[in-house]
Amino acid sequence: MSDPATGVVAWESGPHTDARTTDLDYHRLPEELGDSVPMVGERVLGDFAGVTVGVWEIEPSTSCDVEIDEVFIVLSGDATVQFEDGTPDLELGPGSVVHVRSGQKTRWIVRDTLRKIFIAAPAT
User: How far is CA 39 from CA 26, 45, 69, 114, 121, in A?
Assistant: First the structure.
């Protein structure tokens, strides 16, 4: 059900989504974000308790980002996330649970297509 004022879809109880195999909407990242122009996919499942929940995927590539406040769980893939602020590099693989803070500048080195479930706070 969506909120008529905002158009935001609420995440309701009901049939489950298999995050490992669910269809995603794909697009290429903008060229200015990296050495390559990877294909990324996303499916927003909805909002829950003021956060957005969804599934996101990126193909092997190297790209940069400015993060939002987000917790994610890696379902599949292999990558390293490097941080400009001196935070130690993260080695990601299935089962990794990560919190990135809003404004952190990162470099993603994706060696094997990475798929994650994300829980993201609203942009401020």
Answer: 7, 20, 22, 11, 24
Neighbours of 30 (CB within 10 A): 9
Least confident piece of the model among 18-32, 55-69, 93-107: 18-32
The token pair at 16 is: 């489950």
pTM of the model: 0.83
Secondary structure of residue 3 in the 3-state scheme = coil
DSSP code at position 49:
T
